Q: What sequence folds into this?
C-alpha cells in the first residue's frame, strides 16, 4: 500500500481519532477542578465526554467496514497513538478503540472480504503466542473470579482482543504499507501524538492552571500526558517512534531526514519535561545500536552533535546544561538498591517512600518470594490483581527488613469495593500474576522477534546477521524488556501488536529484502 492509498483509506478513521481526542480534552479540563491525584470514575466526567468516547469507537468500526483495506493500517496507527492516552480517568482508550477495530475486522472476515493466508511461515511462533495470550486471558478471568476485582474485566477484554487479532493476522492477508511507508507512518503518527502532548500540557497547566498551582516549563517533572497520563504511559510511543526516526535519518531523501529529526526532538522534549528515564530509554538503546548500522566513525560524529544539541536544549529549556549527567546518574541509580526511606515534595505534597528504585526491586523480590513459598502458584501465577492478596505480606516483610517505607503516592480508585494499593510497577506484577509460564513466554516472544528481524538466510544457504536499518528494529525488543522494570506494559495493546507474528515488528523486518526470511526456529 502506497502512502497515497494509505492516507485515502484512513481518512474516515481519522475522524474517529479526533472525536476521541475531543473527549480526552474535555475530560482533562474537567479534571482541573479537582486537586492533583483525585481519581475520577468514568461516570464522574461530563456526559458529552462520555458520549464522544463511545462515538469515536463507532466511527472507527464503520470506517473499517466501509474501507476494509485500511484495517491493518488503522489498527497499528491507533494502537501507537493511543498507547499513552488516558480517557475518562483511565488508560482505556486504546483498549476500547482496538476492540472496535477488531470487531470490524471480524465482520469483514465473515463477509469474505479478506483472502485466507496460503501458508503460515511462523507456525511455532504463532503457537507459542497463542499459548502466551491464552494464559494471560485465563489469569484475567482468575482476577475477576478469585479476587472479585471487576477491574480485571478490562484485562480480560484486552487479551481477548489480542487473541482474536492473532487469529486474524495469522490466517488472513491484509493490505499493508511497505516497510518504508510503515516507517514514515509511525513517524508522522508520533509527531502528531507528541506535539499534542506538549500542547495539551501547556493549555491545561499553563492556561487553566491546576487548582491555582501554575506550573510551567521552568519546573520539570510535571508534564501531563493526554488525559493526564503518567510518565510510564505518555512516553511509551517512543519505543517505536525513536527507531523509526533513526531509520529515517539514514534515508537518502532530505524530507525523511527532517521528519526523523523532528521526531527525535519531540520525544526528547517530552522526556526531559517529564524527567522520565523510561522516555530516554529508546534514545539510549538506538544510540548504542548506531555503530552496528552506520559504522564507528560516523557514529562518533553523531554522538558529538547529539551531545551539543542536548546541552543546548537543556540549557534553554531547563537551565541545566548538566542535565545529561543528572539523567545518567538517575539511570545508573536504578541498579543501586538501598534500604531506608526519604521524604520529598511531589505535586506540592510531602511524600515519604522507599529510597530510589528500591521500591520497584522489593516488588519483584516479593513476587519471586511468594511464588517460591507457594509453589502451587509458581507455574501459573496468582492472576490479575492478585499481587497484594498473595504477595502483600512478603512485600511488607521485605520492606520492614530493609527499613523502607511502603507508602503509595496515589492509591487510585476503589472501584468495585476493592480498596487496596494499585498494581505495582510491571515486573513485580507480571512475575506474580502470570508466573513462570506467562513471564517466560513474554521473554520468548522477544527472542522470536529478534530471530525473524535480524537473522537472515542468504541464497547460498548461509545465515547472516542483518544489520543496516534493520538493526534498529532490535530497539523496541530491548526497550520493552527493560521498560517492564520501570512501568506497566500488560494493558498496552501496542506492545502485543509489536510482539505477535505478522505484527508491527514482523512487518518492519522486511526493510531489507536482500536476504530470504527463514523460520528454522519461529
A:
Amino acid at each position: 500500500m502506497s502512502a497515497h492509498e494509505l492516507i485515502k483509506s484512513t481518512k474516515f478513521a481519522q475522524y474517529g481519532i479526533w472525536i476521541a481526542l475531543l473527549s480526552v480534552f474535555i475530560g482533562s479540563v474537567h479534571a482541573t477542578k479537582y486537586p492533583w491525584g483525585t481519581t475520577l470514575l468514568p461516570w464522574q466526567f461530563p456526559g458529552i465526554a462520555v458520549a464522544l468516547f463511545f462515538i469515536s469507537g463507532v466511527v472507527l468500526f464503520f470506517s473499517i467496514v466501509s474501507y476494509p483495506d485500511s484495517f491493518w493500517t488503522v489498527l497499528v496507527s491507533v494502537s501507537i497513538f493511543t498507547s499513552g492516552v488516558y480517557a475518562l480517568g483511565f488508560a482505556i482508550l486504546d483498549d476500547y478503540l482496538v476492540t472496535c477495530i477488531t470487531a470490524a475486522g471480524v465482520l469483514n472476515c465473515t463477509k469474505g472480504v479478506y483472502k485466507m493466508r496460503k501458508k503460515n511461515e511462523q507456525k511455532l511462533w504463532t503457537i507459542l503466542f497463542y499459548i502466551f495470550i491464552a494464559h494471560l486471558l485465563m489469569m484475567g478471568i482468575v482476577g475477576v473470579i478469585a479476587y472479585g476485582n471487576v477491574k480485571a474485566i478490562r484485562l480480560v477484554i484486552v487479551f481477548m482482543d489480542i487473541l482474536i487479532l492473532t487469529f486474524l493476522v495469522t490466517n488472513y492477508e491484509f493490505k499493508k504499507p511497505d516497510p518504508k511507508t510503515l516507517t514514515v507512518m509511525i513517524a508522522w503518527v508520533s509527531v502528531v501524538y507528541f506535539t499534542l502532548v506538549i500542547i495539551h500540557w501547556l493549555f491545561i497547566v499553563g492556561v487553566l492552571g491546576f487548582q491555582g498551582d501554575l506550573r510551567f516549563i521552568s519546573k520539570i517533572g510535571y508534564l501531563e500526558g493526554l488525559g493526564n497520563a503518567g510518565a510510564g504511559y505518555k512516553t511509551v510511543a517512543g519505543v517505536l517512534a525513536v527507531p523509526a526516526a533513526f531509520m529515517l535519518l539514514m534515508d537518502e531523501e532530505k524530507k525523511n531526514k527532517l521528519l526523523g529529526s523532528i521526531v527525535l526532538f519531540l520525544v526528547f522534549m517530552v522526556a526531559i519535561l517529564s524527567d522520565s528515564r523510561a522516555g530516554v530509554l529508546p534514545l539510549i538503546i538506538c544510540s548504542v545500536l548506531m555503530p552496528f548500522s552506520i559504522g564507528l566513525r560516523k557514529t562518533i560524529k553523531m554522538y558529538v552533535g547529539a551531545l551539543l544539541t542536548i546541552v543546548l536544549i537543556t540549557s534553554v529549556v531547563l537551565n541545566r546544561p548538566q542535565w545529561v549527567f543528572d539523567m545518567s546518574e538517575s539511570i545508573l541509580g536504578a541498579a543501586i538498591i538501598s534500604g531506608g526511606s526519604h521524604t520529598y515534595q511531589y505535586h506540592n505534597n510531602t511524600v515519604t517512600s522507599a529510597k530510589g528504585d528500591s521500591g520497584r526491586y522489593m516488588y519483584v523480590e516479593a513476587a519471586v518470594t511468594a511464588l517460591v513459598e507457594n509453589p502451587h502458584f509458581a507455574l501459573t501465577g496468582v492472576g490479575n490483581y492478585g499481587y497484594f492478596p498473595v504477595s502483600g505480606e512478603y512485600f511488607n516483610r521485605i520492606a520492614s527488613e530493609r527499613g523502607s517505607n511502603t507508602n503509595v503516592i496515589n492509591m487510585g480508585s476503589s472501584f468495585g469495593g476493592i480498596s487496596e494499593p494499585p498494581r505495582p510497577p510491571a515486573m513485580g506484577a507480571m512475575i506474580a500474576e502470570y508466573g513462570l509460564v506467562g513471564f517466560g513466554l513474554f521473554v520468548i516472544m522477544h527472542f522470536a522477534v529478534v530471530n525473524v528481524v535480524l537473522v537472515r538466510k542468504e541464497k547460498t544457504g548461509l545465515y547472516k546477521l542483518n544489520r543496516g536499518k534493520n538493526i534498529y528494529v532490535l530497539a523496541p525488543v530491548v526497550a520493552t524488556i527493560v521498560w517492564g522494570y520501570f512501568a506497566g506494559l500488560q494493558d498496552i495493546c501496542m506492545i502485543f501488536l509489536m510482539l505477535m507474528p505478522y505484527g508491527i515488528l514482523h512487518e518492519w523486518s522486511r526493510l531489507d529484502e536482500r536476504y530470504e526470511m527463514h523460520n528454522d526456529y519461529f
Remarks:
- The two ends are 26 Å apart (CA to CA).
- The longest strand covers residues 341-346.
